[in-house]
C-alpha cells in the first residue's frame, strides 16, 4: 500500500479544503492524473497523482478541511512511476533539492537531519520567529518545533518523528534557506511516524534532505507526517476550542458534526473565562506574549512583525481590517491605549518648544509580494534599456465614464497600429515575439505590495467586460484569491499612478515585455482656440519602452496612437 499526504499547495497555510474528488475508490490512476480539487486561501488547485496505482481509500469528502501532511489518498500499486518524495508534486525542484551550505552541514554521526521544508510561498527561505523546543528535548511525532515566518503567515513546523533534539540550526531572526539544516536529532524512536516506502538503492549515497511539507526526507528515507487531522483542521478553521467539545463518536471521539455544532453553540477559542493577555508596553526588546499563537489571528506578516517590534500581543488588538483582520493602525492603537495609562506625561523643555522624542529605527525584512516586486525591479534594472516619452492627451470631450477602461482600449488600439511594442523580447537570443492579441497587465497598489494582474484578450473585450474583469481582479487581491494564471502572460502594462498623485513618471518595464504606459493625474489647462480661450482637461502620459527591442519612431507612433484614441469623445 502507498500513502499520499496532502502537500503544501503553495500558500504557506496549514490546510486546504476539499472542493470535489475527480476520482473514486477503485479507480486506476496514472502518474500526474488530477485526483482532487483543493481550495486554499488564494486559489482552487488540482492535486495530481504522484504515481500509477489503484485508489483504495479517499480520506475525506467535499467540504472537509485537510491539514498539510495529513493522509489524503491510499493506493494499491507498485509505485514504479513515483517520485522519491511522494507528497512533492507541486514543489519547485530547485527548492526541494537545495543543498545546505557546507559550513552548516552537520556530520553524519550527529544523527538524522531535518531540513527546512518548502513552506509554500515560492520563495527560497523563511525566517525563524522563535524556537518552541530546546536542544536535548525529547520530541513526539508532530510536536511543533519552531515558528517560521513566510510571506503570508507564521507557520509552525512539526517534528517528523519521536526523537531527541541534538542541535538547533539558527536562532530567532535568522533566515534559513529551503533545504538547509534546521534541526539535527540524536537517539530516538522514529517508529511513531508513518514511513512511506522508498527505493533505497536509487539515492543511497545522497546527503540531501531538502523537503516539502507533507513528506520529510531524513537521511535516505522518506518520512510522511503522521495523523489524519480532519477534525482538528476543521476546528482550527472554525476557531472552535476542542477542549470545550464533548465527542459523540465511538469511545467519545469528536466528530466533524460535533465541531460544527460547537461553532453554533459558541464554544470558540478564547471563550473561556480568562482575562485577556495585557498589552505589553513598547520596549526595545520587541518581544510579544509568549503564550500567544500568531495563527489564531488574521494579520499580514508585516503587521505581525510590527506587533513584535512594539511588544504588542495580537489578542489585545481590535480588528478594523477587511474580514476581521488586524492592521498596523490597530497595533499602534493598542500601544496608545496601554501607554495612556502606563506612561507619565512628557515634560516640555525649558523655554517652551516641542519635547524631545527618542525614536528608534529598526530594519524591516522585505518579504512576499514586496520581495517579488523588488526582485522584478532589480531584473528590469539589470537587463532593460529604458527610454521614456511624455505627452498630454486632451480628454475634454469625454463624458463621465470609467477612465481605466478607456486606457486599456487605447493600449489595444495602439498595439494594432504599432505592434512592435506589444511584444516580448529575449535579450539573450536577441529575438522578439510580436503578439497578435493584447493582454494588458494592470498595476494595482495594495497594503501588501504591488500586484500586476492581467486582463487577458483585452482586444476581444468591450468596456463593460474590461470593467468587470478589473473589478474581479481587485476583489481577488483583497481576498487573497488571486491565481498564478491571473498574473501571467501580459504583453503590455498600464500603471494608473495618477489616480493617487503624480503628473509624469518613468514607469519600469517588466521583462520580457517591451513597454509600459503610465497615466498621470489629469489637470485643467487654459488653451487658445478659434473661439478664444477655453478650459481643457489634459491627461499626462508617460511611455517607457525597452530601446533594445523598439526604435524611438516605433515608440512615438505607439504613443501617438494612444493619444488619438484617448481624444475621441467616446
UniProtKB/TrEMBL annotation:
Its cofactor is (R)-lipoate. One of its GO terms (molecular function) is lipoic acid binding. Residues 197-208 have a biased composition (Acidic residues). Residues 1-76, 111-186 form the Lipoyl-binding domain. Residues 95-109, 273-282 have a biased composition (Low complexity). Residues 78-113, 188-208, 273-294 are annotated as: Disordered. CDD domains: lipoyl_domain. Keywords: Acyltransferase, Lipoyl, Transferase. One of its GO terms (cellular component) is cytoplasm. Its EC number is 2.3.1.-. The keyword Acyltransferase applies. Residues 226-263, 298-335 form the Peripheral subunit-binding (PSBD) domain. Belongs to the 2-oxoacid dehydrogenase family. Forms a 24-polypeptide structural core with octahedral symmetry. This is Dihydrolipoamide acetyltransferase component of pyruvate dehydrogenase complex.
Amino acid at each position: 500500500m502507498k500513502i499520499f499526504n496532502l502537500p503544501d499547495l503553495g500558500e504557506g497555510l496549514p490546510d486546504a479544503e476539499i472542493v470535489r474528488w475527480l476520482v473514486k475508490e477503485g479507480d486506476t490512476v496514472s502518474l500526474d492524473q488530477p485526483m482532487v480539487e483543493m481550495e486554499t486561501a488564494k486559489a482552487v488547485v488540482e492535486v495530481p497523482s504522484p504515481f500509477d496505482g489503484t485508489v483504495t481509500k479517499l480520506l475525506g469528502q467535499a467540504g472537509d478541511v485537510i491539514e498539510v501532511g495529513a493522509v489524503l489518498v491510499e493506493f494499491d500499486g507498485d509505485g514504479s512511476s513515483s517520485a522519491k518524495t511522494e507528497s512533492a508534486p507541486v514543489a519547485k525542484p530547485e527548492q526541494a533539492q537545495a543543498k545546505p551550505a557546507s559550513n552548516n552541514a552537520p556530520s553524519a554521526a550527529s544523527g538524522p537531519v531535518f531540513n527546512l521544508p518548502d513552506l509554500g510561498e515560492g520563495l527560497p527561505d523563511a525566517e525563524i520567529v522563535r524556537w518552541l523546543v530546546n536542544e536535548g528535548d525529547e520530541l513526539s511525532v508532530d510536536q511543533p518545533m519552531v515558528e517560521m515566518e513566510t510571506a503570508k503567515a507564521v507557520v509552525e513546523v512539526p517534528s517528523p518523528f519521536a526523537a531527541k533534539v541534538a542541535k538547533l540550526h539558527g536562532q530567532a531572526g535568522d533566515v534559513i534557506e529551503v533545504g538547509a539544516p534546521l534541526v539535527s536529532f540524536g537517539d530516538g524512536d522514529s517508529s511513531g511516524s508513518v514511513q512511506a516506502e522508498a527505493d533505497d538503492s536509487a539515492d543511497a549515497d545522497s546527503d540531501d534532505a531538502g523537503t516539502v511539507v507533507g513528506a520529510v526526507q531524513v537521511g535516505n528515507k522518506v518520512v510522511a507526517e503522521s495523523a489524519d487531522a480532519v477534525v482538528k483542521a476543521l476546528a482550527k478553521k472554525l476557531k472552535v476550542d476542542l477542549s470545550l467539545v464533548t465527542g459523540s463518536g465511538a469511545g467519545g471521539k469528536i466528530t466533524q458534526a460535533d465541531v460544527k455544532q460547537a461553532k453554533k453553540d459558541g464554544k470558540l477559542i478564547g471563550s473561556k473565562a480568562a482575562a485577556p493577555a495585557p498589552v505589553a508596553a513598547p520596549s526595545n526588546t520587541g518581544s510579544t506574549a509568549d503564550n500567544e499563537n500568531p495563527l489564531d489571528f488574521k494579520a499580514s506578516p508585516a503587521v505581525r512583525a510590527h506587533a513584535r517590534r512594539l511588544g504588542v500581543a495580537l489578542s489585545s488588538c481590535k480588528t478594523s481590517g477587511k474580514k476581521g483582520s488586524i492592521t498596523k493602525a490597530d497595533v499602534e492603537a493598542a500601544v496608545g491605549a496601554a501607554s495612556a495609562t502606563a506612561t507619565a506625561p512628557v515634560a516640555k523643555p525649558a523655554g517652551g518648544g516641542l519635547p524631545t522624542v527618542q525614536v528608534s529605527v529598526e530594519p524591516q525584512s522585505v518579504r512576499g509580494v514586496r520581495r517579488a516586486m523588488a526582485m522584478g525591479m532589480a531584473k528590469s534594472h539589470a537587463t532593460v534599456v529604458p527610454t521614456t516619452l511624455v505627452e498630454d492627451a486632451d480628454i475634454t470631450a469625454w463624458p463621465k465614464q470609467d477612465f481605466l477602461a478607456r486606457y486599456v482600449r487605447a493600449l489595444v488600439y495602439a498595439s494594432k497600429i504599432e505592434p512592435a511594442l506589444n511584444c516580448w523580447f529575449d535579450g539573450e537570443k536577441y529575438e522578439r515575439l510580436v503578439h497578435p492579441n493584447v493582454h494588458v497587465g494592470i498595476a494595482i497598489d495594495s497594503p501588501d505590495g504591488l500586484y500586476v494582474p492581467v486582463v487577458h484578450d483585452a482586444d476581444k473585450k468591450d468596456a463593460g467586460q474590461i470593467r468587470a474583469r478589473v473589478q474581479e481582479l481587485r476583489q481577488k487581491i483583497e481576498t487573497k484569491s488571486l491565481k498564478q494564471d491571473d498574473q501571467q502572460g501580459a504583453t503590455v502594462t498600464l500603471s494608473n499612478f495618477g489616480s493617487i498623485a503624480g503628473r509624469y513618471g518613468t514607469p519600469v518595464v517588466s521583462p520580457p515585455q517591451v513597454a509600459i504606459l503610465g497615466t498621470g493625474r489629469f489637470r485643467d489647462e487654459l488653451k487658445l482656440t478659434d473661439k478664444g480661450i477655453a478650459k481643457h482637461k489634459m491627461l499626462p502620459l508617460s511611455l517607457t519602452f525597452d530601446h533594445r527591442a523598439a526604435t524611438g519612431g516605433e515608440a512615438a507612433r505607439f504613443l501617438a496612437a494612444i493619444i488619438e484614441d484617448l481624444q475621441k469623445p467616446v
